[in-house]
């Protein structure tokens, strides 16, 4: 996801080059929520500079998992901004992924972070809008006489060192001692801390601060959700139809697991998981197989407790409580 | 749309018969918002009585225009409840339309209405949940020594006398003097009054009251929206991707019309039109080609005025103000 206050380079000339190369006549634009208000400016520029007709996707968009598949029937090509392609769900050759590279300077905040990192082998992680700065980060870390490790993730991860809200596979580096996460928000670094059990330092260039994440608050919340669901007998298992979030097989596995334990479970499919829609379903708890962030970011906002698949396994006694991890949507390593 | 407080017959045995006949293994359920909370009961009954696996659509659903097309990939058949088929967008042979016939008694309220109707030729209109009672209504009207006219609409209308929120074609009866509408809510009868210019008496069996509709309040609101948009220079033209609401050709026509008048217009596509999503687009006014009820029912709830296509024509000077009608989505007569 992209913060509202970032400055971005939209590469208008690059868009025009693609339009000319593909001879597209109708062009779709899909921008994530944090950038969506730029849609009309971009549409206006493209219609003025070329002969194309532009159609703008107004559906909410939170990631490359969330391609507007309906608009593809209306357009020759679709520019999807702000996210990198998820290789494992390459949907359609009409889609061009346009990076919204952040122009913010990160070197000062990385230097500041390095003053507090004592570990020798530092694994570096960030989101797609800063990946073009990682070689600069490597130089800073090596100039501090440390080893810098920037590792490729699985097939859902386009760039070395990149993490998604649903995928920390770039952080599976056995030999590193500590992680440095560059970006804003706690979700990604907390996920890395839970997944790896190692310290994660955040260098936040927007807030201009550095700190070690403390996953204990979120883990306490998750334990409370699990505890509340232990006596539940009826579950609603949520499946999103979004192309990069669709996990029907997992949902069916969980439904069978529930049955094995004498519980009732119903599969509920939807595009976007919202608390309003869930009000319609009287179940004791929900199990969310859609975007793994939803259960955690929106904890307490749903009409019944919402578990991740791994937490549901704990509720059913199929997984040990100590084995609690964040849910991820993984590609192939 | 279906009121929350209605009692319905869900025809469980009919569903089981269809399952047996089609040998379906995976069955989808789609219920409209007013009935959605029954989904899990129905799923539970079907899974107990047959060998099927049920998948429930949790997406919002407001009409037969609003088929959950994503769920069709996951199921052998889909039961779509509470709406009749729109012939002009017959989507898929997997879909079975299950009427949710209302059990409420309507004869008393119709008799009460007839005491106040002085006209001789009475056109009768209602929504799908009461159409099975129209022969009973005919008898009551004829027993009052009046002529009862129940006319078939265009191809979007499944039953004689039926109206939709977006289609009053069953009310195009030149020879009738007055209309009797059976149902709750003002939208349908006001639409009929505006479309025909004739008096419309409502017989509301839920509120147990009868009254003539007065379209003047809604027409004043519409005039205010038009007036506010006269100086607008940038428009967002909304297109829904819902199968029965998709009017891209109309949107392109309107965009060209705007251009002809020196105005800027951008086509914005989305599944469901919500005020939250429209906040992202800074335009002077919206023009809605999706469900015709949205601009009218939710007037004042959008970040900029929302016009219907006909109102946009008035704004551009392409239609006379006196020719204002409700927007409809018509089939073939």
UniProtKB/TrEMBL annotation, chains A, B:
General function of this protein: Catalyzes the first step of diphthamide biosynthesis, i.e. the transfer of the 3-amino-3-carboxypropyl group from S-adenosyl-L-methionine (SAM) to the C2 position of the imidazole ring of the target histidine residue in translation elongation factor 2 (EF-2).
Reactions listed under catalytic activity: L-histidyl-[translation elongation factor 2] + S-adenosyl-L-methionine = 2-[(3S)-amino-3-carboxypropyl]-L-histidyl-[translation elongation factor 2] + S-methyl-5'-thioadenosine + H(+)
Highest rank taxon of the organism: Archaea
Example of a GO MF term: 2-(3-amino-3-carboxypropyl)histidine synthase activity
Full protein name: 2-(3-amino-3-carboxypropyl)histidine synthase
EC nos: 2.5.1.108
Gene3D superfamilies tied to this protein: Diphthamide synthesis DPH1/DPH2 domain 1, Diphthamide synthesis DPH1/DPH2 domain 2, Diphthamide synthesis DPH1/DPH2 domain 3
Family of this protein: Belongs to the DPH1/DPH2 family.
Database matches in NCBIfam families: arCOG04112, diphth2_R
Organism: Methanohalobium evestigatum (strain ATCC BAA-1072 / DSM 3721 / NBRC 107634 / OCM 161 / Z-7303)
GO biological process, one term: protein histidyl modification to diphthamide
Membrane spanning residue stretches: none
